[in-house]
Automatic annotation (TrEMBL), chain A:
GO terms for molecular function: transmembrane transporter activity. CDD domains: TM_PBP1_transp_AraH_like (cd06579). It is found in: Cell membrane. InterPro entries: ABC_transp_permease. This is ABC transporter permease. It comes from Mesorhizobium zhangyense. Keywords: Cell inner membrane, Cell membrane, Membrane, Transmembrane, Transmembrane helix, Transport. It is a multi-pass membrane protein.
From TrEMBL, chain B:
Belongs to the ABC transporter superfamily. The keyword Cytoplasm does not apply. It comes from Mesorhizobium zhangyense. PROSITE patterns: ABC_TRANSPORTER_1 (PS00211), ABC_TRANSPORTER_2 (PS50893). It comes from the Bacteria. Keywords: ATP-binding, Nucleotide-binding, Repeat, Sugar transport, Transport. Residues 7-246, 254-498 form the ABC transporter domain. SMART domains: AAA. This is Sugar ABC transporter ATP-binding protein.
TrEMBL record, chain C:
GO terms for cellular component: outer membrane-bounded periplasmic space. Residues 43-298 form the Periplasmic binding protein domain. One of its GO terms (molecular function) is carbohydrate binding. It comes from Mesorhizobium zhangyense. This is Sugar ABC transporter substrate-binding protein. Residues 1-28 form the signal peptide.
Amino acid sequence: MTVRDLAMRYGFLALLAAMIAYFAVSASGFVSPQSAVFIFQSVAITGVLALGVTATLVVGGFDLSIGSVATTAMMAAAYVMVVLEQNALVAVIVCLAIGVIVGLINGFLIVYMRVPDLLATLGMMFLLVGLQRIPTEGRSIATGMTMPDGSVASGTFSPAFLALGRHRFDFFIPNLVPVSVVVLLILAVLIWFFLEYTRFGRMMYAVGSNERAAQLAGAPVKAYKIWAYVISGIFASIGGILLAARLGRGDIASGNNLLLDSVAAALIGFAVLGAAKPNAFGTAIGALFVGILLQGLTMMNAPYYTQDFVKGVVLVVALVFTFALSRSGQK
Amino acid sequence: MVEGAVFRAAGLKKSFGPIQVLGGVGLELHAGEVTVLMGANGAGKSTLVKIVSGVYSLDQGEITLDGKPFQPATPAEAIRAGVVTVHQNIADGVVAALDVATNLTLDRLNGKGAPLLFNPRRVRREARKVADAMGLSIDLDAQIADLSLADRQMVAIARAMAHEPKVLILDEPTSSLSSAEANRLFKLIDHLRGRGVAILYISHRMSDIRRLADRIISLRDGVIAGVFGEKPLDYEGAVNAMLGQKIGLSAVAVRHADGAIFSSEHLKIAEGSTPFSLTLGDGEIVAITGLVGVGKTALAETLFGLRKPLAGNMNLNGRPYAPKSTSEAIDAGVFLVAKDRAENGIVHDFNIYENMSLPFLQRLSRMGILRRGAERTTARQQISDLGIVCRTERDEMGTLSGGNQQKVMVARWMSQNARLFILDEPFQGVDIAARRDIAAKLRASSAGRTTLIFVTELDEALETADRILVMSEHSIVGEHRNAEVDMDRLLAEIAGQPVRGAA
Amino acid sequence: MKIDRRTLGKMAMGLVGATCLMQLPAMAQDKPAPFDNPGNVKIALVRYLSTGDFFQAYLSGVESQAKALGVDLRVLDSRQDAALQADMVDQAIALGVNGIIIQHGLTESMKEAAQRAVDAGIKVVAFDVNVENDKIPQIEQSDRDLARLALEQAIKDNGESWKAGYVYVAGIAPLDRRNETWVDFKKKYPGIEEKAMFGTLDNPIANSVANQARSVITANPDIKVMFAPYDEFAKGVKIAVDEAGLSSDIKIYSADISTSDIAAMRESGSAWAATAATNPAVVGQVSVRALAQLLAGEDPGKSVIVPPTLITQKDLNDNDIKNMEDLSAKLPQFAHADVAMPAWMPNPNAK
């Protein structure tokens, strides 16, 4: 293995380790179980979204609508519980249904209507940003809010639903690990296993690398592509559920920052272990990388714009790792 | 014609790295004549065209135009000197986003002396002049994107002619045109010939060649294999020279089939083509040969469920066979090694064993979960069977030579038993050793299935097959047992001529 | 009589106003021109910002006051398009309106458009945008007062010496004005120590701020007071404080209020101690009233300041306030501001 190969494979993990060491020394309180859990918690939502977008990247697509799917799901959860006064289960089901439907529509537009993926999902993004405002005429949803018709919404966020954002599991230390972190870890393992160890995941990679070859090998290419967008939609809606549970209300938001952060995590993931392709493990590490960076910088009182700057630097470095150093970049 | 050549090239040589593509080509073009250049894939036609049109530089040799040295460094220089090329890809010749008038005058928008402002009226005036000179009747306001391929081609040629070239090179201009559209193109070419333009016309299509050629030059392996200028033109001889068949290169122990595995009746695979029947027997290898564009790939795709036949029926194992998708074809035991492996075969992000297991993942997994051990064992078996040169089954595809990549593509389908095993141009871009290996493996394993290969190169058919079928104009026009092949008849059939004596 | 009606209205808030059908014709008689015939008065609201609870509430205030006056209101919304907003002023001029309210926007793009409207004889007021025109009164909510009220409460609750976390993003005009007050307070009370300053406008803002606040709390466990002079910031800080389990150790002081803020403040053991707010609906009403005064030939003054109200957790709990309507009903100083309120002006809150 040459030095270059080593740099390719372990360079990014080394960078991660160096960063942790640096913050451990310079930011007091950085090294603690609570701090570690918090880093996971702060990346849980973008991480879930990033895992979903990884599925679309694998089939050679892209999903710009994930951020707005998440915020739409958040609004839907709030609407179902606060306005329609339903329970947590109904809210979760409605959110997941939104994810599935949006994924199917995205897939249909891209596969059957032949709209390029970026444009189709961009359109969907705008559509959802508008749609989530329609039921309340642009108001955020909270218990006791006044509806457009003058009535007062009297439903509340059910405690079971809020627990998704607030309950903590005991893990050596009591009340340590929040539900969102558990959800992130479970989904990460699931999608990682799915992509790496099942034939469906393998075929999705084949579709993304050479669609024609996959078709000639008997793969139902269209179905795989649509499935990828459905996965992306479902993951985004799960992200929205976690968001709603954390905020405890339905907030009008475009979700663009969620989109950008999760796409950054997925792209940083390309560089992890020299994969040079979308992969679930890399995405999870990418999300964590961004989380650690932001936690450390905030603890050191760095203003928010330096954080965006540093995020951008990390992304650019990761992309250089992927495209300049890897063999596939030299084709 | 009498006053000598307008364009003369001698001793042209060109190499890319260690591979010599042109090994001393000489040719002449005369004013008012259509010279047809024929050559199989890889014979060096494109390289020759690119040198003459200023895309590539020359390693050795010299070209003169009107007696003066001609060595264009850029395409623009070639055009200024009077040599204009209309490339095969029509998209290069026209700008789809603009209308006809702008396209016809596009070259005047650039360069010195071009007016700063775009004046639509002046553009239309000039475009009208260009169109009239060419006898072109196309709505000048039409958008290129709305035109048929033929009309786009006309516009591309008219645009080229606006330069008043001495030499016009047309690179396979009819490859995507219907015959009616081609006829319009031929009229245009007649018109240009009448105006004294020297035309180099590159094509495989015998119907084009018979209609247009004043002279034929056959190119083979980077050298001129024959020049045919005496009327009546010897088309057969030209094809012969182009394919360069060497009879008895390696005699094949021809076998007879034991009963049919696949049969079809009245199969029609293209509009206006003659329906044909096809029977493929157990244990035999059948090669279908013919020039490029005669429907070989269309037939392969029909058999593999990628397209539906226009008419006729197919039977496999005595049962009707009408696959709606590739996966149905695969389930029925029909496998296809598609041509052009980089485009249609290789999954570039996958290593060798992942590429091999691609179609049969279902059989190599349990409850959807891959059994990597089984995948790799199967791959190792195939690697040793086919003699694939690699370090391990986990090597990336990019590290393999073309021949070994092709072996992986064949191996992909050999791990399971096929009933009908189709290989479309399996020897394209494959060195001679790998080609022999693949052919030997196909012959050794042919029992229990029927094997169908589609090849343009006659040698490849003669080396591999028990039976050779000839395809022309989307139909099967001849059949030969690969024992005592009547080469004259075979070549005549490939050239698409009524067979003298035998008919 | 009118004053009685207004006072009565405040008291009767929440009850069904069965007499409102009778109300308008009865009042029309005592109003000055042109409001003696309000159906002929057309006013336009030209908006730059419109999405979000604040702007929804502002619009409802404009609408309710316009309805109370009986004038014809046109709403033109440029959706953060500065050039379009200027064009919309011209459009309003072409519509033949009598008065225009310019709501937010950029000085550069609106200055000339506003002047054109004034030149056309149209009365103009501006809310939260300086169009640099002497003829145009400015409606303002006092950001400095907002910050001052919240901070005074913090001093009252915690004494004059504490360690603080401060949420701030520079470059946003109202936040910059609130920041001036914070800077003054730190000078005035040297015992206040700013341990960390953070903030972001990445949306959902509360979620992003929560992530930052968690880091800040971890790094500075001695912080006792969080000053988050924007309610989205405060919500984020509250989530972080709850997640860190420090609700009883940290107090949050903020500005602005909404229904969901009320719920968050009233949660048991909530760290969110107090907020100072101007009712956006009242600001909307004041905007229309100032314009009406201009149309009636009165002078509302060069600058019309809508005073803020301090709302503490205790106020909310004592009065069992659940939403903005309750807040208006039970904290009269929040429901109505006695600004631009000549005797003839109908009070939209009086039902």
